[in-house]
Design a protein that fits this description.
The chain is an all-alpha fold. It has 8 helices and no strands. Helix content is 69%, strand content 0%.
Length: 205
């Protein structure tokens, strides 16, 4: 699908911010990367400033995340009749890993540059990060297998969701997987921990 000029500006700006940093990226460089004449003011036909481009990227990724989370939960719900619990858990974990990987450019910008823009930190926190954790918590509460499990689901969501986020962030920052665990190993361990929340079977008398 052909991207509009505005979309190209946002996408290329985020890529450059991730690679080089917000302050080190000029408007002319964004224009050139987006296929516009550098320094000719093409960016300003769509945005008032470089900051507005950054803000647009944060808001648009947050909006996309909300849609993706809703779609993922709907897809998982449709699996329930045909998939066992471990298969559903594996799908949930892999969807989370894929989402964090998809946001790798935004993640780099977040840690490098957003401390100077607390209002944008709030956008990412409330629009992108918290919805992922809330989705995990909501999913567990909706599964019939966990109906009798009495745990702090908010805390469990933080632990299991945090593990997914940390796995990808570790790869991004260190260049290898934590503990050298391959993705399939991580997913299998994550599923095992989640299944471990189930009540132990009653002893046979």
């Amino acid at each position: 699908m052909t991207r509009s000029t505005r979309e190209r500006i946002v996408d290329e700006a985020l890529r450059l911010f991730a690679e080089r940093g917000y302050s080190a990226t000029s408007v002319a460089e964004i224009e050139a990367a987006a296929g516009l004449s550098p320094g000719a003011g093409g960016l300003y036909r769509h945005f008032k400033s470089k900051y507005e481009v950054l803000a647009a990227a944060m808001h648009e990724h947050a909006a996309r995340t909300r849609t993706q989370v809703a779609d993922s939960l709907a897809q998982l719900s449709s699996m329930e009749a045909s998939a066992d619990l471990e298969e559903r858990l594996s799908h949930l974990c892999r969807a989370g890993l894929a989402k964090v990987r998809e946001e790798s450019e935004l993640t780099r910008v977040f840690f490098r540059d957003l401390s100077q823009f607390p209002e944008l930190v709030a956008v990412v926190r409330e629009g992108l990060l918290q919805p992922m954790f809330d989705a995990i918590t909501s999913w567990f509460r909706a599964q019939p297998e966990y109906a009798e499990v009495e745990v702090d689901w908010t805390g469990i969501g933080a632990v299991l969701g945090g593990a997914v986020v940390h796995y990808r962030l570790f790869q991004e920052t260190v260049g290898e997987s934590p503990g050298h665990a391959e993705k399939d190993q991580f997913v299998a361990a994550w599923v095992r921990l989640a299944v471990g929340l189930l009540p132990a079977p009653a002893p046979v008398s």
